[in-house]
Amino acid sequence: MNVPEDLRYTSDHEWARLEDGKLRIGITDYAQDALGDVVFVQLPEPGLTVGAGQSFSEIESTKSVSDIFAPVAGTVVEVNTELVDAPSGSTRIPTARDGSA
What we know:
With 101 residues, this protein is mainly beta. It has two helices and ten strands; from the N terminus they run βββαβββββαββ. It has helices at 29-35, 82-85, and strands at residues 8-9, 14-19, 22-28, 38-42, 49-50, 55-61, 65-69, 74-75, 92-93, 96-100. The strands form three sheets. Strands 1-2-3-10-9 form a five-stranded antiparallel β-sheet. Strand 9 (92-93) and strand 10 (96-100) form a beta hairpin. The longest helix has 7 residues, at 29-35. The chain is globular, with a radius of gyration of 12 Å.
C-alpha cells in the first residue's frame, strides 16, 4: 500500500491533507474496504462549524452506516458534490477517496 507522506491519519480511519490553507478530509483505504460498496454519502453543508472529533458526515454502505469525524475544529468551506451521484468515490488519491474538504 502506498502511504503519502503529506497525509495525517486519525484513529477513526480518516485522513487529512493541508492544501492551500484548507484541510482536505477523506477516509482511508482500510475504511473503504471495511465498508464495502458505498451506496450513500451524507455531505455536510458548507458553513458548518465542527469541533475536533465531532461527527459531521455519514457514509452508508451495503454493510453499515459509519460516521465521519472531524480531525480538527473548523468550518466546512466546500464539499465533493460528485459523491452525491457516485457515492463509491469518483475521485481517488493513493490511499483514500475524497470525502469532503
